[in-house]
Amino acid sequence: MQQTSARGGALRALAPLAWVGPAVALIAVVVVWPVVVMVQSSFLKISRFGVVQGGNGTGNYDKLFAEPDFGGVMARSLVWVVAVVALTVLVSLALAQLFNQRFPGRRFARWALIAPWAASVLMTSIIFKWMLDPEVGLINMLRRDLGLLDALGGADADPLGSASGAMPWLIFVAVFVSVPFTTYALLAGLSAIPADVYEAAKIDGASKLRTYWSITLPLLRPALTVAALINVMNVFNSFPIIWAMTHGQPGYSTATSTIFMYILKGSDIGESAAMSVVNFGMVIVLTIVFLKVSKWRTAPA
Predict the structure, then answer these.
(1) Where are the bilayer-spanning segments (predicted)?
(2) Residue 137 — φ and ψ, nearest 5°?
(3) Taking Cα atoms as reference points, which of 275, 58, 264, 240 lies closest to residue 283?
(4) What region does 238 belong to: left with phi over 0, alpha with psi -120 to 50, or beta?
(5) DSSP readout, 55-114?
(6) Hey, how many other C-beta atoms are within 10 angstroms of the C-beta on 102?
(7) Which pLDDT tens digit goes with each residue over 131-168?
(8) What is the gyration radius of the CA atoms in the chain, in angstroms?
């Protein structure tokens, strides 16, 4: 009897594995195993054709850190993430507050907001590249008609031809495709805030600005934290926008670490793997720093 009872208890203890097991197995195959292979590859000497030629110790990392453009690429990656995520959050906060109000055409406006999110990021990037074409780009034609551009075809009509002109447009496109998801995430957070909280603030005579700052933002923090964190990871690993619009050129002046990693793959797979490990580490560091700064464990007051 005791053995039967013990066996039944063991089976009950293992029962959750039937539900958790598939998810753990999927994570192991899709996430953990690729990371292990990536780290292993970073210590191997691999030809450009993918042939493993033996161990290379820390040679790939030494070569990577000696790259003259490495420091600039990493600094640019941080600027890229901070600029895109900050602008995305600010624009999304405003749009979420707007779409949370009742006004004619609100449903249509919400549907329209989904369009940049539903479309392929690569397709959106290519469309913007065409619109910025120095000869026939729609945006350049508008600039010329408004007197902001002397003529088509010149260097002034090619904003993607220089880092100073390209980076603002790359950031704009990244914000454009990131705003819909972030706005809807914040809308969900706004809809969860109880209406009686605002009624109490109104009775106490709080202004709209004071109400937003002291009630809406603190109660919106969980949704804001999740949305911003997802944006941090997505933007840091973003590839299609920069690759489709500039290929990281001229030189590496518009390349982020992800673009730099892809370019290195064409000449040295081992060094590219080392760059992948650095990228992975940077994502973890950025995530930890963000969670620390956002104080996500602290409950809203």
Answers:
(1) 12-36, 78-99, 111-132, 169-190, 211-230, 273-291
(2) -65, 135
(3) 275
(4) beta
(5) E-TTHHHHHHHT-TTHHHHHHHHHHHHHHHHHHHHHHHHHHHHHHTS--TTHHHHHHHHH
(6) 6
(7) 988 888 888 888 888 887 777 777 777 888 888 889 99
(8) 25
